[in-house]
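Section 5.1 Outputs to date
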Amino acid sequence: MQFVVDLWVPIVVSGLAAFVISAVAWTVLPFHNSEWSGFSNEDEVADAMRKGSPSPGRYMLPFMGSGKEANSPEGQAKMQRGPIAYITVAPNGAPQMGGMMAKSLVFNLIVSVFVAYVAVHALAADAPYLAVFQITGAVSFLAYAAATVPESIWFARPWKGWLVSAADALVTALVTGGIFGWLWS
């Protein structure tokens, strides 16, 4: 854990920078707006969901508890009839932005700790800026971009949404690599 002590400044600075980049990408820039759309009958869908009183969590439609059920004639008929949906239900009320922002910052700091961990094992203490930039930028990109690929593979998140997130990850990786390169020694 000595690397955390040795690299605490680039860890904190890059974690904070990643947090700011993410906040700007999601709140100021319009790119993520295209990832979401509403139902044409939103009130009816919301009323139907309220009637079922789902607690916060993740839901599948149609839900089948086992592969056997999914492969049954009834399960296959449900799949063909559709719709197939993956739904996340959040608690009612305004989102608790403070808590979500704090969790996001902690996530960014954790990624920066792992970036530092890889870098300290891959690079010499006197490594040149470009080498530090390459290693830390690549690890950062992998952490931020690859994390969301399974959502597109398994849960129908449109690939366009992943590409927008990958662009965010690239900017974050470039900044992270730059910060680690700048503050490395």
